[in-house]
Design brief:
The structure holds 2 protein chains of 2 kinds. Chain A is built from 14 helices and 16 strands. By secondary structure, chain A is an alpha+beta fold. Classes of the chains: A alpha+beta, B alpha/beta.
Chain lengths: ~575, ~120
C-alpha cells in the first residue's frame, strides 16, 4: 500500500506541472519531466537488452573456454594414468617373470634395469626386498643394499594390497622421485617385493607436452594437497598447494575461483588414478580477453546509443516545450487583447450611458438659460441688465463645452457611419498637416515627410483617417519641444498587403506604465488639457477600418505610432453596428 | 403675416415648455405634446405648418410618429431632435422624409435657421 502511494506520488511529481502559472519555471519543469520520462522509456529497454545480451554472451564464452580445458585435462590425465600404469605393469612383469633367485643375482638385476631404462625410460633403480623388509639386491646409482624398509608405511601397504605407489618424496636421494613396490607370491608360498624408483622429471615432461601459455599453470597434487610437480606460480615440488583441492571427485571438474595471488582463475581438477589430482589453472583475464574487448565495444555502443537517445529526446523536448510556450504566449496575448477590447467596450458603454443621461438635463439648462437671455433682452432696461446677459451667455458657453464632451463621448461609444472611398494616404496626411502648418511654423517644428510615392490607393474613410492623423499629430506636437522634429513615413507592406503610416517624434516619450494605458478612455497625460479620449477614439477608428495601431516609445527619446491599414476596408464595418 | 403653427413633441416637460416659450417669444404659434400618441391625435385634428419631433420618447418612438405623420400629411416638414452623438437616427429619419435633424442641446439660432429653411414662404 505504502509502495503504491509512493509510486503514485513519484508519477504525479513527474507528470504534472504548475498548470496555472506562466512562470518560466513551469516550462523548465515540463521540459525536465519530458526528458526524464522519454529517456527512461528509451534507455531502460536498451539497458535491459544490453544486460541480457551480455550475460548470454558471457555464458557462451565461458562454456567455450571450459571445453578445451576439459579436453586438455582429460588428455593429460590419460597420459599420466597410462604412464603410471605402464611403469606398474613393467614392474609387475619383472616380478612375475623372474624368480627370487634370479633377481637376487646382481648381474641379472643390472641387466633388467638397463633393459627397462632403454625400453621405458624414467626408471632410476631396481631393488629386491625380502619378506622381512631388507633390501636383498639392488641395481642403481646409490648404495642402498641392506636398507631395512620393514618399518615404513609403504611396506605395510604393499604387504596388504600387493602394490604400492608412493607420493613424490625426497627419500635418501634428495631429489624428487616416486617409488613403486610390487609384491610377488611364489607357488611355494614365499613372498618378496620388487621396488623400482621413477624419476618425476617424467611428470614434468608430461605436463610440458600440454604446451601451456606462460600465464597458465598445471601440476599434480596428492590427497594431502602436496605439490607433486613444480608449479609456476603456486610453489615447488613437495610444498603445500595453496589452492584447495576437492576430494572425492571421479571425473574432471572445472570451477572458477580466486587464487591466492588475487587473480580470477579457471581451475580444472582431474583425478589421476586414485593417487593424484591433476590441476590446470588458467587466468580468466587471458581467456576472456576477447570477451573483454567485446564488452568494451558493447559498452561504447550502449553509451553512444544512450547519448543519441538523450540528444534526440532533449531536442524533441526543446521543440515541444518551445511550441507549447509559444502557443501559451499567443493565447495569453490574445486573451490580453480581448480583455483590452472588452475593457474599452465596457468603458465606452458606460461613457455613452453617462453622456446620454447628462445630455437631457444639459438640453434643459440650455433652454432655460436661453429663455432667461431672451427675457432679459426683451425686458426694459434695468439695473445690471448687461451683467445678467453676460451671465446667461456664460451659462450657454459652458453648456456648449459640456455638449462637445458628451458628443465626443457618444461618438467614441457609438459607431459613426463610415464612408468608404478610394483615397491616397499621402494626400490625407498632407491635408491633415495643413491644419497644423501654422503651429509648426510658429513653434519652429521640423516636419519631415518620408512618403512613398508608389503607394497603392486604398479604400477607406477619409474623414475618419483625418481624425486619426489629427489626433496623432496633435499628440506629437504636444510631445515635442519648440524646434523639435516630427517625421511622417508611409510605406507598403507587401507581405501583409497593408499600408503602413508612421508618425514619429523626438519628444518626451512615454514609460512602459503610460504605454499600457494610452488607449484607455479618459487616460491623459496632458493634465487638464485633454479629455483622454483622443487615442481611444483613434484606436476605435483604426479597428473599425480593419487596421491596427502599434506604439513604440521610450521615455525622453520620443514615440512612434504606426498604423497598418488594409487596402480594402472591412466590409462588415459598413453594415454592422459595432460598439466600442 | 400669418403666424406659423408649430407642433413641438418631446417627453421632457421642462425642455418642451421652455423651448415653446422661446419660440413664442420669436413669434411662432406653438402646441406641445409630450408623447407620440397625443401628438398624432393633435396633428390629425389641427393644422400645423411644421413639426419638431424628439426621436427618443417612451411609448411610441419618434421615428414611428414621423412615419405616421408622413402618411397623414406628407407635405408638412418635420424637424427631428436627437440626443445622440450619432447621426444614425437623424439620417434614418431623413430617409423616412424628415426635413433635417438637430442635436440636443441646440442653439436657438440654428433652430430658427432650419425652420426658415423648412417653411420659406410663410416666414418670408
Amino acid at each position: 500500500m505504502l509502495l503504491r502511494n509512493l509510486w503514485h506520488k513519484a508519477v504525479n511529481a513527474m507528470l504534472t506541472f504548475p498548470e496555472d502559472s506562466t512562470s518560466p519555471q513551469r516550462y523548465v519543469t515540463l521540459k525536465r519531466n519530458i526528458i526524464l520520462i522519454m529517456s527512461l522509456v528509451c534507455i531502460v529497454p536498451l539497458a535491459l537488452m544490453a544486460g541480457i545480451n551480455y550475460r548470454q554472451y558471457r555464458n557462451n564464452v565461458e562454456s567455450e573456454i571450459k571445453r578445451p580445458i576439459h579436453v586438455m585435462a582429460e588428455d593429460t590425465r590419460h597420459a599420466f594414468e597410462l604412464f603410471i600404469e605402464e611403469r606398474l605393469s613393467t614392474v609387475r612383469f619383472i616380478a612375475s617373470a623372474y624368480t627370487y633367485e634370479e633377481l637376487r643375482n646382481e648381474h641379472t638385476l643390472q641387466r633388467v634395469l638397463r633393459t627397462m631404462r632403454s625400453e621405458f625410460g624414467g626408471f632410476i633403480d631396481l631393488g629386491l626386498i625380502s619378506s622381512t623388509g631388507i633390501l636383498m639386491a639392488y641395481a642403481g646409482p646409490y648404495d642402498l643394499l641392506g636398507n631395512d624398509y620393514s618399518q615404513q608405511p609403504s611396506f605395510h601397504e604393499v604387504s596388504v594390497r600387493g602394490v604400492y605407489i608412493s607420493d613424490v618424496f625426497m627419500g635418501y636421494r634428495k631429489f624428487p622421485h616416486v617409488v613403486i613396490i610390487v609384491q610377488r607370491m611364489a607357488e611355494d608360498g614365499r613372498t618378496w617385493f620388487i621396488r623400482a624408483t621413477i624419476d618425476t622429471g617424467r611428470y614434468e615432461a608430461l605436463i610440458a607436452t600440454m604446451a601451456l601459455r606462460p600465464e597458465s599453470d598445471a601440476f599434480l597434487v596428492n590427497h594431502a594437497g602436496i605439490l607433486q610437480t613444480n608449479s609456476r606460480f603456486y610453489g615447488k615440488v613437495l610444498e603445500k598447494c595453496p589452492l584447495e583441492v576437492p576430494t572425492g571427485i571421479h571425473s574432471t571438474y572445472i570451477t572458477q575461483i580466486q587464487d591466492p595471488l588475487g587473480q580470477d582463475v579457471l581451475v580444472a581438477f582431474a583425478p589421476v588414478r586414485a593417487d593424484y589430482t591433476l590441476v590446470i589453472v588458467k587466468p580468466l583475464s587471458v581467456l576472456l580477453h576477447s570477451f573483454y574487448a567485446l564488452k568494451g565495444e558493447m559498452l561504447v555502443l550502449f553509451c553512444v546509443g544512450a547519448f543519441g537517445v538523450i540528444l534526440a529526446v532533449v531536442g524533441v523536448a526543446d521543440m515541444l516545450v518551445l511550441r507549447i510556450r509559444n502557443a501559451d504566449e499567443k493565447r495569453s496575448r490574445a486573451l490580453q487583447e480581448l480583455q483590452h477590447t472588452q475593457k474599452l467596450s465596457s468603458i465606452g458603454r458606460l461613457a455613452a450611458g453617462v453622456a446620454h443621461e447628462i445630455n437631457n438635463p444639459l438640453a434643459i439648462i440650455n433652454e432655460k438659460a436661453g429663455l432667461m437671455k431672451d427675457l432679459v433682452a426683451l425686458s426694459e432696461s434695468f439695473e445690471r441688465q448687461d451683467r445678467f446677459l453676460a451671465l446667461t451667455e456664460n451659462i450657454l458657453q459652458s453648456v456648449e463645452r459640456c455638449q462637445t464632451i458628451t458628443h465626443r463621448l457618444l461618438g467614441f461609444a457609438k459607431r459613426i457611419d463610415v464612408q468608404f472611398e478610394e483615397l491616397s494616404i499621402n494626400n490625407v496626411l498632407q491635408d491633415t498637416l495643413g491644419f497644423l502648418e501654422r503651429e509648426s511654423i510658429y513653434r519652429q517644428i521640423d516636419i519631415q515627410r518620408d512618403l512613398d510615392p508608389s503607394l497603392p490607393t486604398l479604400v477607406s474613410d477619409k474623414g475618419q483617417l483625418q481624425q486619426v492623423f489629427l489626433n496623432l499629430l496633435t499628440n506629437a506636437f504636444a510631445a515635442v519641444e519648440n524646434g523639435g522634429c516630427i517625421c511622417m513615413r508611409t510605406r507598403y507592406d507587401e507581405k501583409r498587403k497593408r499600408i503602413m503610416a508612421t508618425i514619429e517624434d523626438n519628444g518626451c516619450g512615454m514609460n512602459d506604465e503610460v504605454q499600457k494605458h494610452i488607449f484607455d478612455p479618459f487616460f491623459s497625460t496632458k493634465k487638464g488639457n485633454g479629455t483622454g479620449l483622443g487615442l481611444s477614439i483613434t484606436y476605435g477608428i483604426i479597428q473599425k477600418l480593419g487596421g491596427d495601431i502599434q506604439v513604440r516609445s521610450q521615455a525622453g527619446k520620443g514615440s512612434a505610432f504606426t498604423i497598418a491599414l488594409p487596402l480594402q476596408g472591412l466590409a462588415e464595418a459598413t453594415n454592422e453596428r459595432t460598439e466600442l | 403675416m400669418k403666424k406659423l403653427n408649430i407642433l413641438l413633441v418631446d417627453d421632457e416637460q421642462e425642455f418642451v415648455v421652455t423651448l415653446a416659450e422661446r419660440l413664442e417669444l420669436r413669434g411662432y404659434g406653438v402646441s406641445i405634446s409630450q408623447d407620440g400618441e397625443a401628438a398624432l391625435q393633435r396633428f390629425i385634428h389641427q393644422e400645423f405648418d411644421l413639426v419638431i419631433l424628439d426621436l427618443m420618447m417612451p411609448g411610441m418612438n419618434g421615428l414611428h410618429v414621423l412615419a405616421r405623420i408622413k402618411e397623414i400629411r406628407p407635405q408638412i416638414p418635420v424637424l427631428l431632435l436627437t440626443g445622440h452623438g450619432s447621426t444614425r437616427e437623424g439620417t434614418e429619419g431623413m430617409r423616412l422624409g424628415a426635413f433635417d435633424y438637430l442635436m440636443k442641446p441646440l442653439r436657438i439660432e440654428d433652430l430658427i435657421h432650419k425652420i426658415k429653411q423648412a417653411v420659406p414662404l410663410k416666414t418670408a
